[in-house]
Amino acid sequence: MTATPDRYETEVRADTIYVGTPDGILPVGSLDVAVTVVGGPSWRIAYSEAFVDSHSDIDTSDAGLTVDVVDMINAMTHSERFVRTLAAQPVSAAVSESLHPDNKAGLSLTPTETEPEAKPNQPPQAGPPADDIVSPRLGLFIGKLLENLETGID
């Protein structure tokens, strides 16, 4: 993983997304979770009729093309500001409010539940395992990924 002046690369290794930082590499989260959250391994470029009508100056010749999400992730680069903000985010999704010893409210990490509570007379609900919960760090990265999928990378 290399860094260019003012830009840090993204890399996927062993199904984990990493971002370069001034201090080394930062694990962001699960590739499988990110791909699931954005809707799957490919992204089809589409423009609504209303968008085309209201933005006639925009080139829409890429409509119908399909973008590979993992290729997009590997092509992403980030500013130092974004990387530092990403690094400051919790890597765990389990956050709850609690009182600190000084009796001031704050946030603290707590264990996650692995099974939702069963409801009588209803089939069990399938959901992601606890490891697939989106952490704030991964969520921030996915937000930028979605923006890049919608607008492209310059």
Measured by DSSP, the beta-strand proportion falls in 25-35%
What gross morphology would you assign? Answer: globular
Q: Indicate the low-confidence ranges by residue numbers.
A: 107-129
Report the C-alpha radius of gyration, rounded: 19 Å
Q: Give the total of domains.
A: 1
N-C termini distance: 20 Å
Question: What does the average pLDDT come to?
Answer: 79
What kind of oligomer do you see?
Answer: single chain
Secondary-structure-derived class = alpha+beta
What composes the largest sheet?
5 strands, antiparallel
Give the tally of β-strands: 9
Helix-strand sequence:
EEEEHEHEHEHEEH
The helix content is 25-40%
What are the main properties of this structure?
9 strands, alpha+beta, globular, 26% strand, two-stranded antiparallel sheet, 154 residues, five-stranded antiparallel β-sheet
Question: Would you spell out the secondary-structure blueprint of this structure?
Answer:
Elements: E1 3-4, E2 7-13, E3 16-21, E4 24-30, H1 31-37, E5 42-44, H2 49-54, E6 66-68, H3 69-75, E7 77-78, H4 80-88, E8 95-99, E9 105-109, H5 136-151
Antiparallel strand pairs: 1-2, 2-3, 2-7, 3-4, 5-6, 8-9
Question: What does it look like?
Answer:
The chain has helices spanning 31-37, 49-54, 69-75, 80-88, 136-151; strands at residues 3-4, 7-13, 16-21, 24-30, 42-44, 66-68, 77-78, 95-99, 105-109. With 154 residues, the protein is an alpha+beta fold. Strands 1, 2, 3, 4 and 7 form a 5-stranded antiparallel beta sheet that branches. It has a two-stranded antiparallel sheet with strand order 5-6. A two-stranded antiparallel ribbon has the order 8-9. 12% of the residues are buried. β2 (7-13) and β3 (16-21) form a beta hairpin. Mean pLDDT is 79; it is low at 107-129. Helix content is 29%, strand content 26%. The protein has one domain (3-91, 133-151).
